[in-house]
Design a protein that fits this description.
Length: about 550
């Protein structure tokens, strides 16, 4: 019998009674429990309004919102004078991930009708609230309750009310759970917008990236579909809205062509683990929870106008016009209020550039060095031979601009690496991007990634994945190297353990790889490393504490 990684006893880890997740795996509710009438309130982007303006939890904001729904006509800004004592008594609601859920009891027979008034509220940016009925056991605050009971019923009602979002897949990513034979069980939840232009030099796509403070990985304009009223009519409506919200310097009608023949649609179904906390992670009806869920994203490759390509090719352009006031991700709460009160645009992407797509390999090339593209586009989508075949068949030669028509020849000699960001199979992506690195290069990269993360605590663009540590070690990186580490840090492992801003799983898995590599090198952990491991064990969450302790159960050696 295997030894449990959580408690150390002789049973499978997945069956450990100390594992919080095991308490919700495949635990069928009694028929009485499962039939309780409930009401759910999905806030969507309104959650940002509640946090930024009201500075409340979703449950605490309900009385305020209900009174406003009865008295305000027009856009809600948070400046309204509200007497919350006017709100009739409400049952106890439970705050769950993305949604609040309450029981419908006899003394609140009109509850759903009262709560449904929230759907009449209007906010800047078109955000809205969705109220829906469901049945299930007593509400629980854990994601497992939402994944098993709430999302499937929400999706079922969405299918009846807005069937235009349920699109068949062109590609499936990962191992799919067993799906029903009839119908399409997953709605498209996100849309990516990819402008395309064909030239004598090849096929180009336009990508964007956020400000330097939030990473330098290139991706597409896009976001969540907006259902309900007011909402998007279809995925092309989402495409147009998202573009106009993010590419302020290049309005849709200037940059992209409209019409049914102007774009190529590519829908990807992605298999996800049951623990992935995301509203788009949908458990198919009749499937066991442990098989995980599926999310659906539509990529729209849209014909760019000749004017847009000529004006922007061969350089990195700003997406925000000079002098335009916007609110940016990560700004102060007072600044964030302006998007809700005054309707200022909220910008996540800052710059844009054209990249050449190679028809044979699916790789991207840039006119500048050091570019990286998100893995969901650069690895999953563009490596699909079927997509590239359809893409080049539709756009190649459609508006083939000769070099003479361009302000400068779009030279794009530099390889674009694929970032593992956004994908589960990060190790595979790293192998695809870098191949077999020389040991000295791997060592340099390992030292740089842990040092940068330690020197820039909490800054997203400097954080790393445990798969990076694993990959560099597999290429021969020396875990005992110290040249280049921050002052006072005496090992790569110590650099990881001292970084208290690392995600808990990233920290543990990176430490696990490094401890194993040190052992293979014949070097025991020294006292200061063991002390840091013990400190991690004491401050860890229950699920990782036994595993940290196991790493710390060694006799100290001497530093060589």
């Amino acid at each position: 019998m295997a030894k449990c990684r959580i408690c150390g006893d002789k049973h499978w880890t997945r069956n450990c009674p100390q594992d919080p997740a095991s308490q919700h795996r495949g635990t069928p509710s009694s028929s009485e429990d499962a039939s309780k009438p409930l009401v759910g309130i999905f806030f969507g982007d309104v959650e940002h309004f509640v946090k930024d303006v009201l500075d409340r939890t979703l449950v605490a904001a309900l009385p305020w919102l209900l009174v406003v729904a009865d008295s305000v006509v027009g856009v809600v800004t948070g400046e309204e004078d509200v007497d919350e004592t006017r709100c009739l008594p409400l049952p106890d609601f439970v705050a769950c991930p993305f949604v609040v859920v309450g029981k419908v009891v006899p003394e609140h027979a009109d509850l759903i009708q009262r709560i449904a008034r929230l759907e009449s509220l209007r906010f800047h940016g078109g955000a809205s609230i969705k109220v829906f009925s469901l049945t299930g056991p007593s509400p629980q605050s854990e994601w497992s309750f939402v994944f098993k009971h709430v999302v499937p019923q929400f999706v079922s009602q969405c299918q009846a009310e807005e069937p235009q979002w349920f699109l068949p897949p062109n590609q499936k990513d990962g191992r799919m759970p067993m799906l029903p034979r009839d119908g399409i069980p997953f709605p498209v939840d996100r849309v990516g917008v990819v402008p395309v232009c064909s030239t004598d030099s090849g096929l180009f796509i336009f990508l964007v990236r956020p400000p330097d403070t939030h990473g330098q990985v290139w991706t597409t304009i896009g976001g969540s579909v907006r259902r309900g009223r007011p909402g998007d009519e279809d995925i092309f409506g989402t495409c147009r809205r998202e573009w106009d919200e993010e590419a302020l310097a290049f309005p849709f009608d200037y940059a992209l062509e409209a019409g049914a023949d102007s774009y190529l649609q590519h829908v990807v179904w992605k298999a996800n683990g049951q623990d992935w906390k995301n509203w788009s992670n949908c458990l198919p009806a009749g499937c066991a929870v442990e098989n995980g869920g599926v999310s659906s994203k539509a990529w729209l490759f849209v014909q760019a106008t000749q004017k847009f390509f000529q004006d922007t090719c061969g350089r990195v352009v700003e997406l925000v016009p000079d002098g335009k006031e916007v609110v940016r991700k990560g700004e102060s709460r007072e600044r964030l209020k302006l998007r809700h009160r005054d309707g200022l645009p909220f910008l996540e992407q800052e710059k844009g550039a054209w990249f050449r797509l190679d028809a044979e390999s699916g790789r991207l090339f840039a006119h500048f060095e050091g570019a990286a593209v998100r893995g969901d586009l650069g690895f999953t989508v563009l490596l699909s031979e079927d997509l590239r075949g359809r893409l080049f068949a539709k756009f190649d030669g459609r508006m083939a601009l000769p070099a003479a028509a361009l302000p400068a020849a779009p030279l794009v000699p530099h390889d674009v690496i694929v970032s593992p960001e956004g994908l589960k199979n990060k190790l595979e992506v790293l192998k695809f991007s870098f191949g077999d690195l020389r040991p000295e290069v791997s060592t340099e990269r390992l030292l740089r990634c842990v040092s940068d993360a330690l020197d820039h605590p909490g800054e997203f663009r400097y954080q790393f994945y445990p798969e990076e540590v694993e990959f560099y070690l597999s290429c021969g990186a020396d875990p005992l190297a110290v040249d280049g580490l921050p002052t006072g840090v005496n090992s790569v492992l110590q650099a990881v353990l001292l970084n208290d801003t690392l995600n808990k799983n990233v920290a543990f898995r990176s430490a696990e790889h490094l401890c194993r590599a040190c052992k293979e090198k014949g070097r025991s952990l020294v006292a200061e490393e063991l002390h840091l491991l013990q400190r991690r064990a004491q401050s860890s969450t229950d699920d990782l504490r036994p595993r940290w302790r196991q790493l710390a159960e060694q006799k100290p050696g001497r530093r060589s």
